[in-house]
């Protein structure tokens, strides 16, 4: 999996929980998936459609009613679902809302080692300064990353480091990207 795939995957808030639920054996029908993820119907439908469009999910031919279809993971989806399950498993239930934000995982992937703001931005070419700063701030509030200022650098530059849950997620995602 490439960083662009990870960015695309996380653009819909319920894509990762959906993939993780399917990986854990939840039946591929709407009602069980809604119950397992806790998503609202509209956001769920958008995430489901997004996963189909990205080729990670498909309708299971010959199964389900036309108005209540059954879905299954594609070959690429199996790999993505395994990653999603690892990510969900490494995160406490109360912190999973942060995972539903689009840039959390891609930013953490860049933080497999301490980096400055500009280095993170260069690794994620499509992210805006505002989105990156909001993402970093949100993760800092949850203590997934720490921000330290290099005192000898002129001008002083903050360095971001993944810690605790953030470090575990950074390791999972960077390992998955290197394996691709």
From TrEMBL:
Molecular-function GO terms, alphabetical: DNA binding
UniProt domain HTH hxlR-type: residue ranges: 90-180
Listed name of the protein: Transcriptional regulator
Pfam families with a match to the protein in the record: HxlR
Keywords attached to this entry: DNA-binding, Transcription, Transcription regulation
InterPro entries noted in UniProt: HTH_HxlR, WH-like_DNA-bd_sf, WH_DNA-bd_sf
Gene3D superfamilies: Winged helix-like DNA-binding domain superfamily/Winged helix DNA-binding domain (1.10.10.10)
């Amino acid at each position: 999996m490439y960083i662009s795939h990870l960015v695309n995957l996380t653009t819909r808030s319920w894509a990762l929980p959906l993939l993780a639920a399917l990986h854990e054996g939840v039946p591929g029908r709407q009602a069980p998936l809604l119950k397992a993820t806790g998503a609202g119907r509209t956001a769920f439908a958008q995430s489901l459609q997004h996963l189909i469009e990205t080729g990670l999910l498909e309708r299971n031919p010959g199964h389900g009613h036309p108005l209540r279809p059954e879905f299954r993971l594609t070959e690429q989806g199996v790999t993505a679902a395994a990653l999603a399950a690892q990510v969900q498993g490494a995160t406490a239930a109360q912190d999973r809302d942060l995972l539903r934000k689009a840039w959390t995982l891609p930013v953490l992937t860049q933080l497999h080692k301490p980096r400055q703001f500009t280095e993170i931005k260069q690794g994620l070419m499509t992210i805006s300064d505002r989105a990156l700063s909001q993402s970093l701030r949100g993760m800092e509030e949850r203590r997934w990353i720490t921000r330290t200022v290099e005192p000898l650098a002129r001008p002083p530059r903050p360095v971001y480091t993944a810690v605790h849950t953030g470090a575990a997620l950074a390791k999972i995602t960077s390992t998955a990207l290197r394996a691709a």
